[in-house]
Amino acid sequence: MSSAVVFTSAAQSRPFGFVVEKDAEVCPQPSGAELFAEGRPPQRAFSTSAFSTSVFSTSKDARLAGVTPASQLAIRPAPEMVSSGIAAMDALTGGLPRGCLTEICGPASSGRTTLLLAALAAATQRGECCVLVDASDALDPQSAAAAGVELDRLLWIRCGENSPEKSLEQLLRATDLLLESGGFGLIALDLGDLPPQAARRIPLTTWFRFRRAVEHTPTVLLAVERQSIAGSCSSLLIKLGLIKTASPGERAVEPSMDSQFPVPSYAQLLTGLEITAELVRSRMDRKPVCSAETKFASKTAWAG
User: 81-248+267-303 — its CATH code?
Assistant: First the structure.
């Protein structure tokens, strides 16, 4: 081993020197023969690439340790279904799902109120406390009682403001409080009399929040609208339509025997409607649901 003195300049142009030793090993490694002579096995050469691959594989395995393969996922239990109060609707949809959002949409005189009152009557008769958030103050308590709704189990929240925007704001705030408090078997949101352009101002994030809030609870969240506005947030979507009025019922004025003219419509009393219901979306089954329809009749309370 040889050494040499090297001079270089430093601060204030004063030279200094240091010794450089050539062919010097910082940590000399013993040969294989020396290791065997000492009774130790020779060590393998250390590979940086092998180390990085091992660390990456270990970290990747740690991340995937908590991930369940798709083949081992448990089947999500189906929600509990309760009666809607109309046998034909129960045969079509299986009832109304608890812990889910159900949409009922249709134009005016399509049976929306009939289905709403039937669902409230079925829930209150089961002994459940229910809420109706009425955006347009359109509920007739006498008609509800005639339909079988037990009014002492019904909380009626009236949002009868002058502008649809104010009514909609009150409805959303009340729904948030109701879902947060819990304890209700059915929460119905009546948006049927609001203009469609006003109802569509509800963002999808609000419906998603409602769906998450009602999830894993025994509450049925029911929204009655003119058009579907909750999108994919609803688990059940039913579209109603009016086929025709029921057969002519009682006449307000009896025609004379010698009359040759038919009785005008304003001189007849409407006793009922024939309604069609279409199942547009259902997330109760894992397989895609084909569109299905059913029919049911609606009668006035005094017609019996």
Answer: 3.40.50.300
